[in-house]
Amino acid sequence: VNYIITGVIILIIGYAFGCFSTGYFVGKKNGLDIRSTGSGNIGTTNALRSLGAKAGAITFLGDLLKAFIPTLVVKFVFCPAMGYANDITYLFTLLAGLGVVMGHNFPFYLHFKGGKGIAVSAAVIVVSNLHPVFIGVGLAIFILVVAVTRYVSLGSLIVVWYIPIFTVLYYRDSELFPLILIVSLLFTILAYIKHKANIIRLIHGTENKLGEKKEKKSEEN
Questions:
Q1: To the nearest whole percent, how much of the chain has pLDDT over 90?
Q2: CA distance 162 to 171
Q3: What is the pTM of this model?
Q4: Contact at 8 Å (CB) between 194 and 120?
Q5: Do 20 and 115 contact (CB within 8 A), yes or no?
Q6: Do 82 and 155 meet the contact criterion of CB atoms below 8 Å apart?
Q7: pLDDT of residue 216
Q8: How far apart are the C-alpha atoms of 77 and 195, rounded to whole Å?
Q9: What DSSP assignment string belongs to 126-175?
Q10: Mean pLDDT score, 79-107
C-alpha cells in the first residue's frame, strides 16, 4: 500500500514538472502563441521552425531539464534514502518520467493539448537506464533512421521502444516485472497516440522530411 501511495505521489510530481511547457513560454516571450503557427504543437520542432534555432534549442533544453530534475532526484536521492531495491528504484524513476511525459503531452492549463513527448522520453531513457552502450546504440539507431529516411517522426517512433526493451532485458526476473513492463509500455503507447497523424502520413508517404523547405503540419516533440 505504501508503495502504491508513493508511486502515485511521484507520478503527480512528475506531471507537475511536465506541465512546464517550455515551447509555449518561449513563444510568449517572443510575442507568439506557438500553438497558432506551424503545426500548432508546443514541442521543439515547431519552436525551431516557427521561432528559429535559439528558441528551438531553449525549448529542447527546457524540456530535457524538466524531465531530468524529478527523475534524477527520485533515482539518486529519494530511493537511496528510503533504501529501496534496484527494481523499485527503476519503477519509481519510470513513474516520475511517465508523469513528466503526461504533463508535457497533456498540460491542464493548455486544455490538455501539449507536445508529443519525445524529448522528455529521451531524458527518461538516459536517467532510468544510464547504460552507455545501450544508450549509444539507441542514439545511433535514431540518427541512422533519420539520416536514411529524413523522417524524424519515424526515428522517434522506433526509439520509444527503448524503455520496454530495456525493461525486458534487465528486469524480466523481478517480481515487479509485469508492473514495470506496463509502465514501460505506456511511454510507447503515449508516443504512438500523439503521433497518430504522423503515422498516417508516413503510410501515405506525405510526412514532412527533415530539411524540406515546404512547411507542412508535421511531427513535433
A1: 71
A2: 14
A3: 0.90
A4: no
A5: no
A6: no
A7: 45
A8: 34
A9: HHHH--HHHHHHHHHHHHHHHHHH--HHHHHHHHTTHHHHHHHHHHTTST
A10: 97
